[in-house]
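[09:14] KT: can someone run the structure on this one? pasting the chain below
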Amino acid sequence: MIHITNYSIQKYSDKFSSYEYGNEVSFNDFQHYLNYQYGFKKVDVRKTLWKRFIEIIKISCKSVYKII
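[09:31] RB: done, structure tokens below
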């Protein structure tokens, strides 16, 4: 029930929105979580991870573009 692409399935779980509203976390909240829980203060979510997110999305789309 926690996979990011299964939002349409997650909403039927009893635990939906039990940790964050709509099972979605803002960049600021995610940054705070990393800083607090793991001490990743040197990792800037917007500058570092966002670029990787975009790369992963591009690769994912390219892998199925002929099918869809």
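[09:33] KT: thanks! The chain has one domain: 4-64.
[09:34] RB: yep, looked fine to me
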